[in-house]
Amino acid sequence: MTTSFYNRQVLSNGMVVLTERMPSVKSASIGVWVRVGSRDESPEVAGVSHFIEHMLFKGTERRSAEEIARAVDAVGGTLDAFTSRESTCFYAKVLGEHLPLAIELLADTFLHSRLDPQDIDRERQVVLQEIKMVEDTPDDLVHDLFAEAIWGDHPVARPILGQKETVLRLAQSDIRRHMERFYRPDRTVVAAAGDLEHDRVVELVLRAFDGFEGRSHHSDPPAPISTAAVRVEERDTAQLHLCVGLDGLPYAHEDRYAIYLLNAMLGGSMSSRLFQEVREKRGLAYSIYSYQASYRDCGLLVVYAGTSPESSGQVVDLIRAECARLRDQPIAPRDLQQAKDQLKGNLFLGLEGTSSRMTRLAKTEIYLERNHDLDEIISEIEAVSIDQFQSLARRILRDEAFTITFIGPVPQAALLS
């Protein structure tokens, strides 16, 4: 049994503060999470969540962008942010003794950013370069193409970075309106892990976020409806990049551990069926892997491969054949146990750092609204039976459900696979 150092507190304004003390470490990671991402944007301001991520470090009423950077560099820490389809996170990692500075900096940028029009215009060029970088990286772009192919024009399918046309139009008023709508205490979670004391973190958060009030105004759109499709973007590239996939499961689904195991067995490691069959036995790809992505009301199970154009049809056939094998043929108990051991090992190794612990705290709060300690997770992994696994595989891995996307010089044979 593991000892829990987890604490949760809801502040009077509605903010949730989560902490996990890790007695053996000297560092601490803290993140301010907002339950808003690219799927919450209207088409006219697509990309605004990611743009805000960039803008909050460009200067506040008290500090310039350089002063913000110097303050965290002076204590050997890091300050960063990221945007996903359903959340935006601003986080810092410092020695535990410098946690007061980290919290003060995060609150200052979160509450008091200037959003100067000149800074907006300058950062707009940075974001446009980031979009171009993805467009020039087909092994990244093919995943965005896949989401658009399977989910159509649903907001969850849009690229997180936005599109050039919408980014060019974003103005200070759009940013402020978006923040006034979503950046409210009832959608904000502060998560911290490492060398800390819960009561002290709460005290620091209360002081730094003093005056942060209000309620968000938003209604969730209905879940996306998937469509089996084939999408092709012809390009003159040396490799053909492809994704083959279908619907997965929402984050809180009762079969989530079964799909984690399914993904591990299909293409989640070097010992997985696809890596062994496609790369090791046949040498048809350098990179081939599967992943599952879960959101509040939907999910994906996707295989990516980079291969030669002439081998692409064979690679697609092999991916579909391995999916059919997992669906139609009973798995051996030892294979399921091997996947369980791999999943548990990855879990423990991935949670050795304060940043990963902080992220886990926030995500379980956002999606499950409660803590999942490691003992409970291990128990639920071990509880997945062969019958549950096979039932999930039959339900998900249906021949008629596959969506396929290609970027590169696509031969006609691949389209007929």
Provide a descriptive summary of the structure in words.
The protein is an alpha+beta fold and 417 residues long. It folds into two domains: 6-208, Metalloenzyme, LuxS/M16 peptidase-like (Cytochrome Bc1 Complex, Chain A, domain 1); 230-415, Cytochrome Bc1 Complex, Chain A, domain 1, CATH 3.30.830. Helix content is 45%, strand content 19%. It is built from 16 helices and eleven strands. It has helices at residues 48-55, 65-73, 99-112, 117-135, 138-151, 164-169, 172-182, 198-208, 256-267, 273-281, 312-328, 333-350, 354-368, 374-382, 386-396, 412-415, and strands spanning 6-10, 16-21, 27-34, 78-83, 88-95, 188-194, 230-234, 240-247, 285-294, 299-307, 403-408. Strands 1-2-6-3-5-4 form a six-stranded mixed sheet, with helices on both faces. A five-stranded mixed sheet has the order 7-11-8-10-9, sandwiched between helices. A hairpin with a 4-residue loop joins strand 9 (285-294) and strand 10 (299-307). Helix 1 (48-55) packs across helix 7, helix 3 packs parallel to helix 8 and helix 9 crosses helix 15. It is globular, with a radius of gyration of 23 Å. The mean pLDDT is 95.
